[in-house]
Amino acid sequence: MAKSGDKSGGSGKKSLKRKAAIAELQRAAVAEHEATESGVQPPKTAAFPPGFSISEIKNKQRRHLMFTRWKQQQRKEKLAAKKRLKKEREALGDKAPPKPIPKTIDNQRVYDETIVDPNDEEVAYDESTDEFASYFNRQTSPKILITTSDRPHGRTVRLCEQLSTVIPNSHVYYRRGLALKKIIPQCISRDFTDLIVINEDRKTPNGLILSHLPDGPTAHFKMSSVRLRKEIKRRGKDPTEHIPEIILNNFTTRLGHSVGRMFASLFPHNPQFIGRQVATFHNQRDYIFFRFHRYIFKSEKKVGIQELGPRFTLKLRSLQKGTFDSKYGEYEWVHKPREMDTSRRKFHL
Amino acid sequence: MASDAARWNHVWVGTETGILKGVNLQRKQAVNFTAAGQPRREEAVSALCWGAGGETQILVGCADRTVKHFSTEEGIFQGQRHCPGGEGTFRGLAQADGTLITCVDSGILRVWRDNDKEASPDPLLELRVGPGVCRMRQDPAHPHVVATGGKENALKVWDLQGSEEPVFRAKNVRNDWLDLRVPIWDQDIQFLPGSQKLVTCTGYHQVRVYDPASPQRRPVLETNYGEYPLTAMTLTPGGNSVIVGNTHGQLAEIDFRQGRLLGCLKGLAGSVRGLQCHPSKPLLASCGLDRVLRVHRIQNPRGLEHKDEPQEPNKVPSEDTETDELWVALEAAAKRKLPDLKQTQRALQTKRRKKKRPGSTSP
């Protein structure tokens, strides 16, 4: 009890612990009014009353000691269990059961009813008659207008220029403080099919508004992790004028389908494989990663890739029906953090 | 089998691809009904209302200006009639004494003789209501009284058997604190049962109560909710409040005696297109552009009762989802009918309630 304080400098931790254990035991014994023979307790086995937990020890040092001892014991047990399992696997050889798959948030995703079944005819009909139908039927080819928020700084301007090399048939215009609602009718009259506005805050681009033009949906994204060409390590030479291929990964839900179609309609329908360039929109856990690569097949199965072009990450904030009208437009999907982000395993795209 | 399924549907929803869906909440299934067998965007449903004869017939107003009759007993579309005149889609559909009342976007309100055999191309009565109509609603207590309102089109109450002038024409509120004219955009209108009052919700996030019986033509009460246009409104069974929904999917219950906000309902992610309360039980069916039909419990406790996904492809721009529930005559008497909203009959209601409770608070 009181002795443990004196002994701390001299004897090793073990005796201290033993004393602590004994002290605990004695105190507990006293508390329970059990008649014990003091001094005849076995020093090694500390039999605690049931329902006792380490956190009930009031003394911080002793509590910490007990805890570290418990942790070391747990680690030892875990290591022993692993070794045993490994030995068993080796012993069984071929007959060993397959290794269990580790749980990740992606494979623990809650079942989402909006995931589109590829055979669903209602969805197929809806997609064949929506605003992108004319693109997917090869009736219109995209013409993009890229602009920024007013008074952009260097990073944003350079990002726009690089984006315009990545997206074929795109034009960059300086914003000049014009209202989007006034720009849009002018774009429509000049046959633009999409409008991209890169929003900037404190000299870095942080938002993207993508509006499909005749009367299509407007998507508003949060943009993060923007890397311009010179910041990308081991990159290849600048992209050529060839039309790239597109990869859209993991847009499974109905909302994901809409967003995926929006991205697809930015690029012309006929990729030029000679250019060996590919733009990837990869959706994982509601974040969309954009990458632009050049690939080369070294053999049948082996590919080498070089990253060109800018890279950024997008997160969808809202999808609005109709062209840009944030005040009076009707929203098809709005991200509501307090309602939608309650579960770590639920995703919407 | 189709008839069976058709009869047991609790909520009817119209979609933008022209499909009428009947949703059975007990079995959590939706059944699709199309007139031509194939969905067509030209037939996008823009207005729904119950037909004559209780809740056995639904009148579906489509974007190509046809009104289709759908029988809930048999589960098939029985007939259709073309209602030409004016431009734009249907903004209101109503049925009164064998006549059909339609109102289109450009303000032409027509009363048609609802005879299947004699589909006369001429309307019985035609009124010009003013351009930019957003809603026409029929007074459930007086079937020949309708109210119309829209964008820059003030609320007007018309008596179809009376003169060509509106019975009540609302006046705009006073200029605001900057002495600017307050714009008008009436998105939805409801008649309050038991009195002559009307409630409207506007695109400028206001909820207003008008009383034609008072000498004041301006709104008697005005409250604000949120910052986005209110698109749909419905009366609660308690009779003292309305539930409104806006373009961001926020639903709120507002007491119109005091103008207070009683509470909000959550769950919707897209613009609210249709709201309908059950006539007697505190249940609300809501549908919106996020393609999900949800049934909410309005009080004790406030929460989501039920969520239906299967509107997969279709957004639901239709104004009305109607809750129609059938009593199986186990206990009480005949089918209870309430004016205005759809019937209340319910099979084994309480039992189902208790069953649902434990699992009902699913997100």
Automatic annotation (TrEMBL), chain A:
Top-rank taxon, per record: Eukaryota
Compartments, record wording: Nucleus, Nucleolus
GO cellular component entries: nucleolus; preribosome, large subunit precursor
Gene Ontology BP terms: maturation of 5.8S rRNA; maturation of LSU-rRNA
Keywords on record: Ribosome biogenesis, RNA-binding, rRNA processing, rRNA-binding
Region span, Disordered: 1-53
SUPFAM superfamilies: Class II aaRS ABD-related
Segments forming domain Brix: 142-325
One protein family per Pfam: Brix
GO molecular function terms listed in the Swiss-Prot or TrEMBL record: rRNA primary transcript binding
InterPro entries from the UniProt entry: Brix, IMP4/RPF1
PROSITE patterns in the cross-refs: BRIX
PANTHER family: RIBOSOME PRODUCTION FACTOR 1, U3 SMALL NUCLEOLAR RIBONUCLEOPROTEIN PROTEIN IMP4
Function (record text): May be required for ribosome biogenesis.
Protein name: Ribosome production factor 1
Source organism of the structure: Prolemur simus
Organism lineage string: Eukaryota, Metazoa, Chordata, Craniata, Vertebrata
Gene that produces this protein: RPF1
TrEMBL record, chain B:
InterPro entries: WD40/YVTN_repeat-like_dom_sf, WD40_repeat_dom_sf, WD40_rpt, WDR74/Nsa1
GO cellular component term, pick one: nucleolus
Domain of life: Eukaryota
GO terms for biological process, alphabetical: ribosomal large subunit biogenesis; RNA metabolic process
Keywords: Methylation, Nucleus, Phosphoprotein, Repeat, WD repeat
Function noted in UniProt: Regulatory protein of the MTREX-exosome complex involved in the synthesis of the 60S ribosomal subunit. Participates in an early cleavage of the pre-rRNA processing pathway in cooperation with NVL. Required for blastocyst formation, is necessary for RNA transcription, processing and/or stability during preimplantation development.
Organism from which the protein derives: Prolemur simus (Greater bamboo lemur)
CDD domains: WDR74
Name by which UniProt lists this protein: WD repeat-containing protein 74
Matching Pfam families: WD40
Entry-linked PANTHER family: NOP SEVEN ASSOCIATED PROTEIN 1, WD REPEAT-CONTAINING PROTEIN 74
Region (Disordered) residue spans: 300-325, 337-363
SMART domains in the cross-refs: WD40 (SM00320)
Compositional bias ranges of the Basic residues kind: 349-363
Organism lineage: Eukaryota, Metazoa, Chordata, Craniata, Vertebrata
Assembly with partners or alone: Isoform 1 interacts (through WDR repeats) with NVL; the interaction is independent of RNA or pre-60S ribosome particles. Isoform 2 does not interact with NVL. Interacts with MTREX; the interaction dissociation in a late stage of rRNA synthesis is required for appropriate maturation of pre-60S particles and depends on the ATPase activity of NVL.
Cellular localisation: Nucleus, Nucleolus
Compositional bias of kind Basic and acidic residues: 303-312
